[in-house]
Amino acid sequence: MKMPSSTRRRFIGGLLGSASFWLYSDHKVWADALVAGNASPYAPRFFNQEEWRFLNAACERIYPTDAHGPGARGLGAPEFIDRQMDTAYGRGELWYMSGPFVTAPANLGYQLSLPPRDVYRQGIAAADAYTRAHHDGLSFADLEATEQTAVLKEFEHSDMALGAVPAHLLFEQLRQNTLEGVFSDPLYGGNKGLAGWTLLGFPGARADFMDWVNQEGAAYPFGPVSISGETA
Amino acid sequence: MTTKKTDAIVIGAGWAGSILAKELTEAGLSVTILERGEDRATAVEGDYPTSIDELRGAIRHRLFQNLSQSTVTIRNTIDQTAVPYRRLAAFLPGEGVGGAGLHWSGVHFRVAPDDLALRTNVVARYGKSFIPEGMNLQDYDVTYEELEPFFDKAEKVFGTSGEPYTIKGKVAGTGNPFAPDRSDAFPLPAMRDVYSASLFKKAAANVGYHPYSLPAANASAQYTNPYGVQMGPCNFCGYCSGYDCYMYSKASPNVNILPALRQDPKFTLITKAHVLKVDLDSDGKKATGVTYLDLRTNQQVQLQADLVIISAFQFHNVHLMLLSGIGEPYDPVKNTGTIGRNFVYQTITTSRAWLPSKQYTNLFVGAGGAGVAIDDFNSMNFDHGPLGFVGGSPVWVNQAGVKPIAAAIGGPGGKAPTWGEGYKDAMVETYRHSLTIDAHGSNMAYRDIYLDLDPTYKNAYGQPLLRMTFTWKDNDIRMNQYVVSKIEPIMKEMGATRYALGQLHANDVFDTRRYQTTHLGGGAVMGADPKTSAINRYLQSWDVSNVFVIGASAFPQGMGYNPTGMVAALAYWAAYHIRTTYLKNPGPMVQA
């Protein structure tokens, strides 16, 4: 079952206000529709193919698939990040970006002239060049998982310049955006199937805990629901 | 340039500006609020479910100041070069109608009376030599008894929920025994304690402290305030801090004042109006109005008025005074001037306790103003003599509703990994079974901690940015460490399986990358002496008598309590004296 997403959103939006939606609706059907809508692989709009391979591999190492469930890749974090690049945030329009840009103590915060788009563009190319130089000509995405983790750990604690980007800044950009993709509303392309929220036990847009102010430490019993009405 | 006229101009549509605008229109004046951000109405953009979107809200800062147009520069010490605060992190000023009063949490305190005369009290109890070299300890020059009617009024406007201790000298409830006497009960009963707060309440009492439920401007029941506007009962959805409240339960200017004010024909709200400066007459003694930039047309507009209220966010007030030439800029070397002097913050650290795996803390359940606190180590409620520091901290569980992105980026805490292998296990344990306890403390003022204009960086309109010179000082670090040490026995008593104490460390510098609090203060402080204060006890400029400066900029010290209750009381106090005294005979209300 498929509907244009705007129609679907309006329909669900209308339902959200009614008690019957929460109590009786078999909204599994909407979750299925959303999954079906995402059946074909996402084609990145900002990242080129090499960058996309790097991004997918790095996100997955930051938030790996394991016994707990899907990793960042399965949850759509790379898609989330690609889509964020075409927002005011990705373009750095929420930040003060006037010069002069100077080097300052780390505790005084970000002082580069680069918005997230350029952090990735310069950082990923340089990171791949770095792994090719140190790992038999292999790009980051072609390394074994354990090697990828080792490279990311190195970046996490290093001032080494990747383009104009210190390695630790590229790493933190990746870590933060990956976790945003895993744990934000699926509206933005990540947290597919609400699996990020399910892991933590976060109930999403339920946002009404009148009866759960104090249940003496019992676990909240209901699964998550998204802004569009998807459940898990 | 276009020129227009109004009786009173109010700069900024946050709590202070909305209160002053309401009071001045009630006094019969035509009032224009100039707000540089967008108009915001909870019915439009606070609606469910689109408003409860963490990415768009607290993470991408939907309701916060867009730094691309204007920010501050920051350095730790006078010998450094300040650099811009390019990304929001350490503190989060608001923008748009409601200001920070739209995205706040709702903890609604009065004031610890001793804090209003802190210098006098410290000297009386411990002697003048107790005050460390370089600390500008000062009194407010107003007493709790004078302010009490205005605290009462603000609580009734905000629909504040709380449990009293004494009313008119008689014990009337199980509230905070350190709280000052009240003339009346809270308008609503206290918010219920969430599970983690109830554990804290029992444990803190067991170890001999005096826990109480926080006073919260989150409505515990349906409420209609004196302006006739309605609030709905809080459902603990957890979307207070960083959000507009879709339940109309968290007090905001948008919900509690503006719906009444907007109907008054004497009131005008102009949004996207960025005030460039307050215009002064030729001898600089009187304001003639303001010049603002209409951000929609990019045209400058001159608005004339008899009275100008500067009531933007704390540091914007100071910035505007410096840009306008109101008062003498503070010079820390010569120790002259007052504008920018006594810039203060708060010392806030968070400690975490993990509970056994059968106990779920359901961290997403919460209300921004609710929780349980102790005041045993706040203000002058304990003996500082053997400790050798000034100040204190309330300690509390204030479970405001923890959302997953912030939790995930913050990491599981302790020594657990912040990504990769082992991260998910640790995050699950922390998110499901932990709770946090804050020490939310004072920060004293120092001669070399101040605000001035930056020599290099400019805003989008070509004006110099405000420069902050700020770092932590030994007195405040030791105060924080002492109070945090009192958290440990509470955590043990709660049955924590393990815990991690958060505290400041000797020689820590202020780190702008990590959120601490938006409770900035001072820079245009009130007081009795024009040599050490920018405004008098009625919040009137010593130098330009038809300018009043309302906000936390008036605080001579950073107090342990959250500032909004005090800001609102000072706003009503100033408005009362403008109405009853100033308007009848405009001019200085205190002779310097």
UniProtKB/TrEMBL annotation, chain B:
Organism domain of life: Bacteria
InterPro entries: FAD-bd, FAD/NAD-bd_sf, GMC_OxRdtase_N, GMC_OxRtase_C
Domain Glucose-methanol-choline oxidoreductase C-terminal: 455-571
Segments forming domain Glucose-methanol-choline oxidoreductase N-terminal: 231-345
Entries under SUPFAM superfamilies matching the protein: FAD/NAD(P)-binding domain (SSF51905)
Positions of transmembrane segments: none
Record-given protein name: GMC family oxidoreductase
Organism of origin: Gluconacetobacter tumulicola
